[in-house]
Amino acid sequence: MKREGVLGAAPTALSQRVCRVIGPLLSAMGLILLGTATARAQETPIPNGLAAKYPGDEGIERDPRVLFADDFETGDIKEIVARWGNGRHEDGRMAPSDQVRDDSPGRRSLRIKFGHLYTHFKPSDQVFVRYYMRVHPEFGYPHHFPFLIADRVPTPWPKGFAGKKPAGDMFFGTALDAYSDWGKLPPPGKWMLYTYWQGMKPDGLGKYWGNNLVPPQKELWERGRWYCLEMMIKANSRPDAADGEQKFWVDGNLVGEFKGFRWRSTDQLKLNSFWLLHDGETGSSISNDKDHAKRQYDVWFDDLVIATEYIGPVQGRPKAGKKIGVPSRSALGTPGLVLAKPGKIVFKEDFDGESPRFKGGRLTAGGVNGSKAFEFPRAGADTFHLFSATVQDSTTIRFQLKPLTDVTQAQVLVWSVELKDNVRIPLTGLKKGQWSDVEIRALDLRVGWDGEGEGLDGKLLDNLKIVFDGSPDARMLLDDVEVRE
To answer: How far is CA 269 from the centre of its chain?
Structure first.
């Protein structure tokens, strides 16, 4: 197995469950073709794609089949991050660059060194992503490169999913990545797909790191050279069908093709997110690289297009010379497009009345807007059977919390009558004396101590309890509770 670590961090009170970095695990599952998938590879070009209709990619962003596009010709790094939605660019990790390939239709690319951009697009059952990429001539082994993702409850930032087999109703994704054969191949190695889905195989210790799908290849990855890369995922047609696919092309040649995937267990899960990632580390060797300390880890990206059909390499030149494209913007901010809009209110409590619908505490002054709030001890505040909602994509729980003393962690508990178990959602980042907004999508609620049991999709939600860790005299304020269907 390729080494896998914590993929992404969420700057929110609602903690993301992530896994620690572990060393490489050599197991029989290191290189797989999978019991549920067949694979074949070829290096022959396929017919021209969308790019053939737009010389130099000029105007390709206006094609109705294009979901997102950025040629990095416009804006400083803060503007680029803003239109994508999220990015890690501090300490010079990412910046516009004047390094472009000889046949580039533009003047700029984007340099990334251990950073990322993250965006969302209109959900689709089949998605192609094309981009140009070049690694430094003295590049070593990477940790991870870009991911194409289906996320049932997308967030503005990349979630942590390392080391876990995803539920079929919540997540799947693949990176077009580098395979080093644990340092046996010269860096960066060969092309491969690095895949997470409900049918993935564990390593020898039972952990679920991304499965490596490495097709036969004639050539290794050449450092210092620009490549046109394209990857595709096609979801299975029915929840019970294993007819999903994924492919990738290098310079317009089909190199890897894998079939037979049962990516998802519900057709509500669709491809909707892309992570332009260069993940690595400088503190230790990757793939036992004895020259790791001497390596240069800059990576350049250019001319990215996400579409529902095959795109292909840039062809020709723009009519007016060098182009300045019109970049897209993250679709997550478009209400109802990527994430379902919360529905009607089925429960609301602002604690301004005299009879609160929560137990375990008391009314007090000091609410969010200067009104009342509900003060409760560490044993918790709860409400049971005063509302009823059937969990669906739009079901949302919102409230505000304010610790009056230092607390280590709070936790939301929901009891599922149908599953006869508790949901436990940890809340971190709460600060003494400060109100924190908490929003939980009910689809994220899964039973079990580890939160990896069955989810509440389609099941009853009729109770809510909030507890926290702290001293015996610790108190917390609760205000503006709302449950939307």
So the answer is: 13
